Amino acid sequence: MTQPAHLHPDRLLPAAEPARSIARELYPEVAELPLICPHGHTDPAWFANNERFASPTALFLTPDHYVLRMLRSRGLSYDDLGIPRKDGKPIADGRAAWRLFAANYHLFVGTPSKSWIDHSLHWAFGITDELSSDTADAIYDTIDTALATPDLLPRALLDRARVEVIATTEYALDPLTHHHKMEAEGLIGRVRTTYRPDDVTNPERAGFLDRLHQFGDLTGENITIWSGLINAHRNRREVFRRFGAVATDHGLPTALTADLAPLEKQALLERILTGQYDPEDADLFRAQMMTEMALLAVEDGMVMQLHAGARRNTDAHLLEERGPDLGGDVPSRVNYVDGLQPLLNRCGNEPNLRLIAFTLDESNYARELAPMAGFWPSLMIGPPWWFHDSPQGIRRYLDQVVESAGFYNLAGFNDDTRALLSIPARHDVWRREVCGFLAQWVAEHRLSKASARDIARHLSYQAAKDAYRIA
Amino acid sequence: MTQPAHLHPDRLLPAAEPARSIARELYPEVAELPLICPHGHTDPAWFANNERFASPTALFLTPDHYVLRMLRSRGLSYDDLGIPRKDGKPIADGRAAWRLFAANYHLFVGTPSKSWIDHSLHWAFGITDELSSDTADAIYDTIDTALATPDLLPRALLDRARVEVIATTEYALDPLTHHHKMEAEGLIGRVRTTYRPDDVTNPERAGFLDRLHQFGDLTGENITIWSGLINAHRNRREVFRRFGAVATDHGLPTALTADLAPLEKQALLERILTGQYDPEDADLFRAQMMTEMALLAVEDGMVMQLHAGARRNTDAHLLEERGPDLGGDVPSRVNYVDGLQPLLNRCGNEPNLRLIAFTLDESNYARELAPMAGFWPSLMIGPPWWFHDSPQGIRRYLDQVVESAGFYNLAGFNDDTRALLSIPARHDVWRREVCGFLAQWVAEHRLSKASARDIARHLSYQAAKDAYRIA
Amino acid sequence: MTQPAHLHPDRLLPAAEPARSIARELYPEVAELPLICPHGHTDPAWFANNERFASPTALFLTPDHYVLRMLRSRGLSYDDLGIPRKDGKPIADGRAAWRLFAANYHLFVGTPSKSWIDHSLHWAFGITDELSSDTADAIYDTIDTALATPDLLPRALLDRARVEVIATTEYALDPLTHHHKMEAEGLIGRVRTTYRPDDVTNPERAGFLDRLHQFGDLTGENITIWSGLINAHRNRREVFRRFGAVATDHGLPTALTADLAPLEKQALLERILTGQYDPEDADLFRAQMMTEMALLAVEDGMVMQLHAGARRNTDAHLLEERGPDLGGDVPSRVNYVDGLQPLLNRCGNEPNLRLIAFTLDESNYARELAPMAGFWPSLMIGPPWWFHDSPQGIRRYLDQVVESAGFYNLAGFNDDTRALLSIPARHDVWRREVCGFLAQWVAEHRLSKASARDIARHLSYQAAKDAYRIA
């Protein structure tokens, strides 16, 4: 059977010769490499319980904020798309929502979402038709039937997708129940947790103080004194490492860090604990905690990830009506140079520190991150994040980072997704784009084909293992 | 006769195969579509009076700030280019100015100005020679002779250019004299006004308070109370709609909006009315007025355009000597995320609101506007504006907006020009670039040719009608 | 002998037809033009004394902060790379450092450093092997032997590299000893100094006040009154002109300028002189000095260069351990619109003023510098600077500046380097990229081949002479 156009084997590769032929040589050598997924948001319950996915809608539509936001932007209602409301009022059922999605699938032309979904429908279900009103029901039924088979169970999907390692992300207070279960079944190592302490480092999240006290209880530390608070993290990081964690992750509105004197830190903590603080204090607390995390990373060797610049829940009404993670987060400008200065001057030359920086502000690439990563031994650049994890996003990234950072200060790829089925698609896009980029440079005689081959393999597989210190 | 190089039929299309052949298929299908011009600055007197244009210089040189600025930047004097002085001192006459322009036409190589002028000379006058010292007089005479013929009268030009709809832009206090005349002649609908109330929303424009009182007189509202001020706008918007207005337009140094409580609004208005305000108050007044305009748009369905980020009249000496709009305006950084937050949280989910955002800060495209337009139902992205309405500007725009906003959150094209003859040229550049972009994606198997064809037609014609709610 | 891949004659030229053939026509016409080097940091002692270079390591590794930073970023130690320490502790010797460099040369794949070094090894030493552990010793020996020959003496290198003019850069207090010697030998004109008064305009540099008093002594002016301080500069600029200076250069963290009233200036100076000033005063002093320099430039016609946006010595530990210029400088965001406003409004229309602006913030290109240079007669845009003096950097630059500034507001190329041997390589990359860019536009019928030919020659040679007023 001939492949339909949207699944063309050459897709994304350079269209013009001589780069096309070179890319066609490079890509097959990396296409089938195992997947290293050191940062993401898949649900650990899937792998712990290995139960069937509920429905096509629950798999492809309801949890995918990329998809929901686009449908919403063209006037579709979240009620009709089956997104639960806090007030419990009725919403569309799964099949009705699916049909609406299918009828509007043309809105995704040109978006990464379409390429991920097209790819997922094909690799997981053998579907080559494009989603549309005409195909909605048939595709729904095909998926629904397949989901009942052993081949589509979560662990089987990890195998089929050649996932060698996958990291989930849990908050500091998470009981890691699913990871306990996976430990008992020998799954830890292939599945790993990641320590994301935003729940106890960001004073502006609702319920922060309660959680901070829970954090003390959980770890047996006195979190009302600064050293006790740090001990609680030290303790908790160790627990996470038992469940495979090689990294911590930090989501912040800015890249601000701080390096306060001990007395200042204690005074700041007291203002936070008594609620007598202003927004500048909240910034400062987050900023100081980044440096503390870096110092703990120097001790324990966990790799530190900084995701800076997401403005969360910009639609207050939507947040109140249905909760977070429904598409209302948007990027904002980031200043990495000033932001990281205190942290890097405190411990940026420590051989044990590894800080991987991500940005949603592409103006950081050439102006800040590449020059900085090309200087500080501790700093690497994470792959294009979120909105920029896309063909054009990857092209802009490689265009802007390689010349100043080289290829070896890049942390390879990670899919950063909660959509399990999109994982192979996302890695595949990255690999195609990397091969296309390198092929172009080979065609311009800037790189030998042998170098291109090495770098393509490195960026497709080994770079992520190295960057995240995965043995 | 063979086309000279600068009018080559393939100009701007991708040079390399296979994209070139695909673009050559796409472009002819959109090249001759009618022009929708929903935002621009042509003089309504032209269409109302339908009189001949005065001279080649008055048509191509004196009113074109793109052209003037470039000549000035290379040391030519505005006196020698025939730009009137406020002190009435002598300036060059039309033909002398034209010769100087022609002698320096090489300065425009690589600029959109040159492509617009080359195109204009050809489509309107059949001139295929390039402007130069050698051709200056002959071209001047050809144009001057042609301008005396019926074919070159303003209304005939609309026909020849296939302009289906064209909007002019008038301030809130404008008497709309020319539109009255056009109404009588049945021209409204094809020609439309646009409500641009900057004259009564920006306290820092000279003469603001006088105008605000005139605004009250004109509308019979008490503009010293906030609700009266808003009523005055409500009233005036209705009048503008009678003359075809489907949109409002707002030119602001920043994208700041506000959502004050009623008492705060009244207090602010009082500070403004008494002149007891500081620059922050002026910002706040403009910001609050944006949200008020959005609320009125929710009521009356007029489409709201925000042109943010132009720093006006940066050369104070030039402003004093000859006035505004002579090239001294420059772009500046814009923050759309924080700026629009109050407005969008007030009414960004209202189905009746349509806000089209334009920027001169291209870093907004991928970081802010595309993610936001891909979420908020009310928000669309306007085409590349001003300095960026150019081949490279359009490429950067499509590169950066499509993946996160999709094609259907784009407002199509508008020419935004006061240069009537450049209108077909500008639309043609947009259409060529859109076809080239889509052809490239088809060549990379990211898009079917059928999709590309649909999107090319949409972005060339229907998108603008839809975005501006033109029936 | 066939050229090895990394020295391919078509390198960097467009890979796809028809642009490739056009570029191959354009490039040979500019490849051999003499080099104009109006801004750089070569050591005047080289040309004055014409002595052999000490060693391969001293030539290629130790002084090259681009190379050092990359090696450091991947964990190599500056001790092992032979970088002197202030505490005098032992460091690696030249050959050991060279071997380490060679063993890690793969880190430079894709960086401009590699292309410069590959090119230098070839043109100066006839070496076509790539550097690696295997070739380290042989290449070291080849270079070391060659350095002892007359062909590799500094002045001979200027000849071989076809350097027509080269400017060094000296601080205001520099005794210009080497230039005195060169004057006696008739070298001034080919070698020129540049007036870089940062040592006496930046209050935050260590030792500033002492130097300011020295400046008064050296010039016989009373630097405690503002007019005396300006006179000291006037005087010193004249001395520099005697040694060929056609330009001044100003390195600043921001693009801030100011235009204070006389009394404010004197009060500011007094705060600076008594040390009773805060960081805002330091900013203001630097800002005001920029405008003063512009006013002096109006008097004496020296071309003013502004290099804005470098954050210096971001690694305080490294600075303390080994000093500056070892890779710890990084770019930061710049605001040229607001920054230059006071200066340009004071004298931006003066025919005698020429201000060449450089940026490390590429978002300035299309948003600020191109629109501003396309308006102000005094303003030109310098070539891509530092991290952006690279193939992709040049592409982004041309993409973003040409349409609004035209080709004739660009200052051509300068190499800005302290690495003598890299000079031909850097100019060659620029020329190749310019030809590739123009070829692409010719292929898209945006430019005639004749225009492309003229512009390629202009940007390769004459533009720099014109911009810097080199007769």
Summarize the structure.
Chains A, B, C: Belongs to the metallo-dependent hydrolases superfamily. Uronate isomerase family. The structure is a homotrimer of 471-residue chains. With 471 residues, the first copy, chain A, is an alpha/beta fold.
Give structural notes:
Three copies of one chain form a homotrimer. The first copy, chain A, is an alpha/beta fold. Chain A has two domains: 5-48 and 154-467, TIM Barrel (Alpha-Beta Barrel); 52-152, Orthogonal Bundle (uronate isomerase, domain 2, chain A), CATH 1.10.2020. In chain A, 50% of the residues lie in helices and 8% in strands. Chain A has helices at 19-31, 44-49, 56-60, 65-73, 94-103, 112-125, 136-147, 154-160, 177-184, 198-201, 208-219, 226-242, 262-273, 279-300, 316-322, 336-347, 363-373, 391-405, 422-443, 449-467; strands at 35-37, 163-167, 170-171, 191-192, 195-196, 247-252, 303-308, 310-311, 330-331, 355-359, 379-381. In chain A, strands 6-7-10-11 form a four-stranded parallel β-sheet, with helices on one face. In chain A, α12 (226-242) crosses α14 (279-300). Chain A starts with 18 loop residues before the first helix and ends with a helix. Chains A and B meet through α4, α15, β9 and α18 of A and α16, α17, α18 and α19 of B.
